[in-house]
Amino acid sequence: MIYGITLIILGLLAAPSLLLSKKPDAKELLDKITPYQGWIGLLFCFWGIWGVIQAVLNIGILSTFPIWWVTWLASSATEAVLGFILGYGMINKVLLSKNEEAKAKGQQILAKLAPIQGKLGLAGIAIGIWVIIASLFFNG
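Predicted structure:
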């Protein structure tokens, strides 16, 4: 369930116009979070990558709980991608700054993902809601 909640939060950070159109006073909250966006993104990028690794290592679950395994993989991948987008500045500063090739590759990936950031944010919200529903019905 925590993946669902974090995905919804990450989706809202990635698609702030959606949140602001529904709740205009949320701008104050977004302004408070913005200075920490890089660290939040970096954390969720690694957490998402770890989730993808764990899902792949536990691929045996696919035969008994296919819906849950696909949900796990989709939520982790979405979290990693959204975390990368939101935390790119921090990722660049902390991890990529010493390697020019890695830095260039990171910029290429970001350039491809940036135009669809809002759609990925909406996907994160939708998958987050599904994760919460799935965790209630399929995992316990």
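Summary: The radius of gyration is 16 Å.
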